[in-house]
Design goal:
A hairpin with a 2-residue loop joins strand 5 and strand 6. It is globular, with a radius of gyration of 18 Å. It is α+β, with helices and mostly antiparallel strands. The chain contains three helices and ten strands, in the order H-H-E-E-E-E-E-E-E-H-E-E-E.
Amino acid sequence: MRRTALLALLTLAACHHPPPDGPAPAEALVGKEWLLVELNGKMAPPAANRNHASLLLAADSNTVSGYAGCNQFTGTYTLAGASLTFGPLAMTRMYCESAQALEDDYTKALAATTGQRLVNGRLELLAGTTMVARFKR
């Protein structure tokens, strides 16, 4: 009995394949909130309210929105295969001294983004071949 159960579990595990690393298909990215964990090769600092900066690509339009560390933002995006770019962002205008550097660096990374990929289930934004931001779900 135990041997049969173990064999069944091993068979099921062999059939499960994690998503491959590489450019993410649109359905893997859109309609999901992504939380910023790394920015320009360093762990992302906490936002003003200790939440993560975030990113949400709308599924039914080419609208991006999120939280930049102090202010909310919205704009447009273009996603085609591995290519991902963001249009100009509109932001609320609160001042948060403790999160200003995070917000500046994050919005610069979004403006520089030219591509995307999934690595171990995490979304990476690329500027050319350089990873500028990493997100978790």
